[in-house]
Specification:
The complex is a heterodimer of chains A (about 350) and B (about 270). With about 350 residues, chain A is of the alpha/beta class. Chain A is about 40% helix and about 20% strand. Chain B has 13 helices and no strands. Classes of the chains: A alpha/beta (about 350), B mainly alpha (about 270).
């Protein structure tokens, strides 16, 4: 089974690059191949960002999608002939790609839109593209009056009895544990990993499920399998939109992002840079949350007037919401200490 | 003769020998020859724990499949032909449904607000919902359901070949039905037992979807470690090494089994 899945991954990589080659056959001078994660998200960004950018720049944007681009990015660059240009992937992968030489170093002189963004939102190899947040979500049926509103509440099984779920991954989970233990959201990094795992041991007996997919986290809450859960804000607001009796708080949420980065040796480097700059244009960015529950990465999007005030209030990266949250440090997570913490997770789960 | 077999051999070479060889190669080669990936498996606790858990679950599923499967196969083989077909169809039909669908179906049945807990609560049997899923129990139930046909079919095939005259001969010599079954039928059905058990055991070893979906995150089987290894160590060598160890374990099991019965029997031929 697992041999099959590994081969499938390998074949997928091959067939995807074959597809990309095919789709780039009707070659025009200015074109790029852009890769994202597919689904509703890629549809939303096509309408909000990709199509308008292509029109404004007069280029063709070929699209490809893959749930986890990282292995394919590595093997494409290793092959010496990448077919992709720009990839939208978790910010940590862009940083790791920079260190390993599979991602181009960016020249911010050519990226004025990105250069104007807060420094924490970019790196030498990446520009933040959109924000989502790991938030504390809860059942309104179980907590009709006083709902849990901080990670300390999540950890407080006496004051808030009930079943809980956390993500089966150290990202955001360690941050939440430290905030539950009293660390301020802006004082998290470098993470005190020992302290975080100690705090997690405390809550572990009360965790019913360690979820592995976003869909699962929403289903657990919706079915009443758990009463509170750390989940991605978009998943919870989708449930709320369907009328489920659930809620969430941005307080002490962990703000996470995907970023744009360019493959090393990308076939259309110059066009790729033009596109990256255009993709974080405030107006395009402001369009994104009109189509999906993700927040714009460029804070200037909130000054464009495109997003209505009631919508602004729902977005993780809106200034008022962002100020209550912790900004995940992908630089820390891709450092040796971060990687060691990630490896420690499996043995924590097994014990 | 060889010329006739050549296309088939080529397919085997392309689809099995090359990928497996590549798998083995990358488990020892990463910027030079290295045994690091195997050293890690040898020295880190998580691998031992996952291998132990995987073997325990495989053993449990195999035993349960045998306990459930034997009477079913027996009933199918002794019932009138028409009924035998109905019984087999009931076993095989779910077999054609996607594993993913069945895993989610078990979730709908077993979870806290699931069908089983709801019914038990309404009947007043329980006050608090039972924890039937998101643990090893849920994993075992779903895996068992998915793999049961692999036990029933080889058993049925073997049982059908047992001549009924033997039982009558036993009876004419004074054996009651129980004794005749115990002394005649059961021993003759053992090759089927071994075949079915081997299949179920080996398939459980590599199971991924059910522990991932129904294990609640705590039931970490080897297949899940393979995917974790790709994520964590960011190179396929680490995952390949785990795969190779599992492959060797399966190979050894088949070797051991083949000393008792011919392998083609295990795989359902003849």
């Amino acid at each position: 089974m697992m041999i099959a899945s590994l081969c499938r991954r390998a074949l997928l990589g091959v067939s995807l690059s074959a597809l990309a080659t095919l789709s780039s056959l009707p070659a025009s001078a200015d074109q790029i191949t852009f890769v994202s994660q597919g689904g509703a998200y890629q549809k939303a960004q096509t309408v909000a960002i990709l199509d308008p950018s292509a029109k404004k720049l007069g280029i063709t944007i070929n699209q490809d999608s893959i749930p986890d681009a990282w292995p394919a990015v590595k093997s494409q660059v290793a092959s010496g002939k990448p077919t992709w240009d720009v990839v939208d992937m978790p910010t940590g992968n862009c940083l790791r790609g920079g260190e390993q030489g599979v991602v181009e170093k960016l020249d911010f002189a050519k990226l004025p839109n990105a250069a104007a963004m807060p420094e924490a939102y970019r790196s030498a190899y990446s520009v933040t593209y959109e924000f989502y947040s790991s938030v504390l979500a809860f059942s309104r049926k179980k907590f009709p009056d006083a709902a849990p509103s901080s990670w300390a509440d999540f950890w407080d099984v006496k004051k808030f009895p009930g079943r809980r779920a956390l993500r089966n991954h150290p990202f955001a989970t360690l941050e939440a544990a430290l905030m539950a233990d009293g660390v301020a959201p802006d004082k998290l990094y470098p993470l005190d990993v020992d302290r975080a795992f100690r705090k997690l041991e405390e809550i572990k007996p009360n965790i019913t499920v360690w979820w592995t997919s976003g869909a699962q986290s929403a289903q657990l809450l919706n079915d009443g399998e758990v009463d509170m859960v750390m989940a991605w804000n978009g998943r919870v607001s989708a449930l709320m939109g369907e009328g489920a009796k659930v809620g969430f708080t941005f307080n002490q949420g962990i703000l996470q992002s995907t970023s744009l980065c360019i493959l090393k040796g990308a076939p259309n480097l110059a066009t790729a840079e033009r596109f990256v700059n255009e993709a974080v244009d405030p107006v395009h960015q402001a369009n994104l949350p009109l189509h999906i529950d993700y927040g714009p990465a460029n804070p200037k999007a909130f000054d464009t007037g495109v997003i209505k005030p009631e919508r602004v209030a729902q977005l993780p990266s809106a200034p008022d919401n962002a100020s209550k949250q912790a900004l995940m440090s992908y630089a820390w997570w891709s450092s040796p200490a971060g990687e060691a913490a990630e490896k420690r997770w499996v043995s924590f789960m097994q014990k | 003769m060889l010329a006739l077999a050549l296309p088939a051999l080529l397919v085997i070479l392309l689809l099995i020998v090359l990928p497996v060889g590549w798998l083995a190669w990358q488990s020892v080669y990463h910027d030079g020859f290295t045994l690091e990936n195997y050293r890690r498996i040898w020295s880190e606790d998580i691998y031992w724990r996952s291998f132990a858990l995987t073997f325990q679950i495989s053993l449990l599923v195999t035993l349960l499949a045998l306990l459930l499967g034997y009477p079913i196969a027996y009933a199918a083989s002794v019932a009138p032909k028409r009924w035998g077909i109905v019984i087999l169809a009931l076993v095989v039909l779910p077999f054609w449904t996607s594993v993913l669908v069945r895993a989610y179906a078990w979730l709908a049945l077993l979870q806290r607000t699931g069908v089983i807990n709801q019914v038990l609560r309404q009947l007043g049997v329980i006050d608090e919902p039972l924890a039937l899923v998101h643990n090893t129990f849920g994993t075992v139930v779903a895996t068992l359901h998915i793999l049961l046909p692999f036990m029933v079919l080889p058993l049925y095939a073997t049982m059908q070949q047992i001549p009924r005259d033997l039982m009558q001969a036993g009876a004419s010599l004074g054996a009651g039905p129980m004794l005749a079954f115990w002394r005649i039928f059961l021993p003759l059905s053992l090759p089927g037992v071994l075949a079915g058990s081997t299949l179920v055991f080996v398939l459980t070893l590599g199971f991924y979807i059910t522990p991932e979906l129904l294990g609640g995150g705590r039931t970490i089987m080897i297949s899940m470690l393979v995917s974790r290894n790709v994520e964590l160590y960011d190179q396929w060598g680490a995952a390949s090494a785990v795969g190779v160890v599992l492959l060797v374990a399966v190979g050894l099991i088949f070797f051991a089994v083949s000393r008792f019965i011919p392998l083609d029997r295990v795989l359902g031929q003849k």
